[in-house]
Amino acid sequence: MRPLLLVIACCWAFAAAAQQGKAVYDKSCALCHAAGVAGAPKFGNAADWSPRIARGAAALYTSALSGTPKGMPPRGGNAELKDADVKAAVDYMMAAASAPAKAAAAAPKPAAAAAAPAAAAAPASAPAAAAKPAAVAAANVNAFNRLLRPASRQNPPPAEDGIHDPKNDGTHVLQAPRSAFDALPRSNAGNRVNWVAALEEKRIAPRWDRADPKASGLVLDFNIVREVKGSMPDVVYPHKQHTEWLDCSNCHPAIFIPQKGANQISMAAILLGEKCGVCHGKVAFPVSECRLCHSKKKDTAAAAAAPAAGAAK
């Protein structure tokens, strides 16, 4: 009977480890690995994982525990994870990649995949009424960013700001922005608060989980540069400033597909409340502040040399 008991004990231990790995994956790893964000190997994708598995489990454990220069944060961005938790998650992902057909059926979906329209993916800290249907935004495309005329009054009370529902009793209980923002760093754009500086100076501490004040999120520190035609500087999208405030699922994949070349972005679409316009002009600084996004100067020497080289052929 002893060999049988040993087999049962081993099977139980294996199942418990797999369950632990899945729990850690769902909480701390799926944000990037479910959709392959920033080049992360996708869950259950044998082509992504094979060269990594070939390096051995020890190398993968080291990468997961210490992070990588390509953007993988130590312990998946959750410093509270124990070594055993991280290794269990790695084992879970390696096992899924070793059986792609079985893993494809069981692969967890990203949290944002179930989101309805793109406008519904507005930040959790934003009022629910900020995510307006596309038809409403298209009916008055300049209303939300006030490009045609300046606001007659800065930071009006919630019941008068055009975002909150004035008929809701809870709206009138909210603190007025002028008093709420009084101690925060100033800005010349939007609601006149420099929110990035407020984060850096620890003036604010956005909560990652509404019910759990100790929950921690994933902060990615890398920029995406989108080259712009014409004389305008190129656009720099800083992940750090966004992910310090927002969970990745606010944007991916409902608003932006996390794949190079998969997103067609134009100022027309943004003004209609799409892409960057889902938040900017509503709950983030307005798109009239061009230089806050178009912040990377073009290499004028390289740009001038390109036409000359083409003419010489």
Question: What's the short story on this structure?
Answer:
36% of the residues lie in helices and 4% in strands. It is mainly alpha-helical. The chain has a three-stranded antiparallel beta sheet with strand order 1-2-3.
Q: Which SSEs are present, and which pair or pack?
A:
Layout: H1 2-33, H2 46-54, H3 57-66, H4 83-98, H5 100-106, H6 134-139, H7 177-180, H8 195-200, E1 223-226, E2 234-238, H9 239-243, H10 267-271, E3 294-296, H11 300-312
Helix pairs in contact: 1-4, 2-4, 3-4
What does the model show?
The protein has 313 residues and is mostly helical. The protein has two domains: 2-139, Cytochrome c-like domain (Cytochrome Bc1 Complex, Chain D, domain 2), CATH 1.10.760; 223-312, Cytochrome C3 (Alpha-Beta Complex). Helix content is 36%, strand content 4%. The chain has eleven helices and three strands. The protein has helices spanning 2-33, 46-54, 57-66, 83-98, 100-106, 134-139, 177-180, 195-200, 239-243, 267-271, 300-312, and strands spanning 223-226, 234-238, 294-296. Strands 1-2-3 form a three-stranded antiparallel beta sheet. Helix 2 packs across helix 4 (83-98). The chain is globular and about 60 Å long.
